[in-house]
Amino acid sequence: MLNETRFAVKLARGSGKILINNLNKVKSVREKSPRNLVTDIDLASEKLIISSIKKEYPAHKVLSEEAGEIDGKSDYKWVIDPLDGTHNYIHRFPLFGVSIALEYKGDVILGVIYLPTMRQMFTAEKGKGAFLNGRKILTSKLSEIRDSMVSMDSSFSNSKRVMLGTLSRLIDRVFRIRIPGSAVFELTSVAQGITSAHISYFTNPWDVAAGFLIITEAGGKITDFNGKSVNHYCREFVATNSILHDKILNCL
């Protein structure tokens, strides 16, 4: 395991401890944009992560959901979401987590996701597989769409008619559809074979940088709705177990 991965795992655990210790203790909530909230706990988690990165790797760049871009002289950039699933967290819905990824010249080389309520630590390094608490994970082997569980994101404010159209086309073709409201949970569910696909109509790089690497290292596939390869700076995507990819795209 890379030293940077060990460092990210330690950071994710520390951040997760902040989230657990302050669950149901949120003191301030601010609306960044319509139906897009940030809390004092997001900021506390972010402060821990960024200050630790700048102490350990002072030349590295950072991209974080709340702080934005922090420049540096290195070709390395940390992409972090200190609390993914903020709205779940506010309502004490226990699907939320921490996402930390490291880019080198724009390419993600490691990803770490921690789901503190379940004590699940996901790690991946490029070309070395994906792991949950040290155990190798793989995407599902389902080949029939009717047997699959599919998740969708909850950004209905962006394209309600399109998303509801997709939902109506999927609902009678797949086994079940879920809308968990947390990218880290949705992506790691695909990576470990709980779900066979995830469909997102709006995302940000900090939401998916670590999750994309974990899925691909677990054997999954990620494209846009036309089947074109994408990276973590995309806006919409489909992530699957790869076997069902074309069948899911046909539903879109």
Describe the structure.
The protein folds into two domains: 3-137, Fructose-1,6-Bisphosphatase, Chain A, domain 1 (2-Layer Sandwich), CATH 3.30.540; 145-250, D-Maltodextrin-Binding Protein, domain 2 (3-Layer(aba) Sandwich), CATH 3.40.190.80. The chain has helices at residues 3-21, 40-56, 86-90, 160-170, 183-191, 205-217, 245-250; strands at 29-33, 36-39, 61-64, 68-70, 76-84, 97-104, 107-115, 120-125, 130-132, 135-137, 149-152, 176-178, 197-200, 221-223, 237-240. It is α+β, with helices and mostly antiparallel strands.
Quick summary of this structure?
By secondary structure, this protein is α+β, with helices and mostly antiparallel strands. It has seven helices and 15 strands. 32% of the residues lie in helices and 29% in strands.
